[in-house]
Amino acid sequence: MKILAIIGSPKTNGNTYRTVNQIERELNEKNDERTFWTALLTAAIDQISMEKKQW
Predict the structure, then answer these.
(1) What confidence score (pLDDT) does residue 17 get?
(2) The pLDDT value given to residue 16
(3) What pTM value is reported for the model?
(4) I want to staple 41 with a disulfide (CB 3.0 to 4.6 A). Which of 8, 10, 33, 49 is the partner?
(5) How far is CA 21 from CA 16, 24, 29, 46, 48, in A?
(6) Bridge partners of 35?
(7) Is the dihedral of CA 48, 10, 2, 33 positive or negative?
(8) For residue 4, which phi and psi values (nearest 5 degrees)?
(9) In sequence order, what are the beta bridge partners of 12?
């Protein structure tokens, strides 16, 4: 299973960031076959913009 968490807060000490990291750790402990990515919303928007330019 592949999981992508897109969060809007770039603060590494913010609640959203800590929550996503906790979920990632717990999922990794339960099943090693899961792949988990965390992307900051600003980075995701930049990536989408770059992909649209390539169309």
Answers:
(1) 78
(2) 78
(3) 0.51
(4) 8
(5) 9, 5, 12, 22, 23
(6) 2
(7) positive
(8) -120, 120
(9) none
**What is the tally of structural domains in the chain?**
1
Position 14 scores a pLDDT of 79
Residue 6, domain extent: 2-54
Q: Average pLDDT across each block of 10 residues of the chain; the chain has 55 residues. List them in order.
A: 70 78 80 66 62 59
* Count of beta carbons in the 10 Å neighbourhood of residue 43: 13
Report pLDDT for 23.
80
Compute the distance between CA of residue 55 and CA of residue 43 in angstroms, rounded to an integer.
19
Q: How far apart are CA 2 and CA 13, in angstroms?
A: 25
SS (H, E, C) 18-34: HHHHHHHHHHHHHCCCC
Query: Which pLDDT score, from 0 to 100, does residue 20 have?
Result: 79
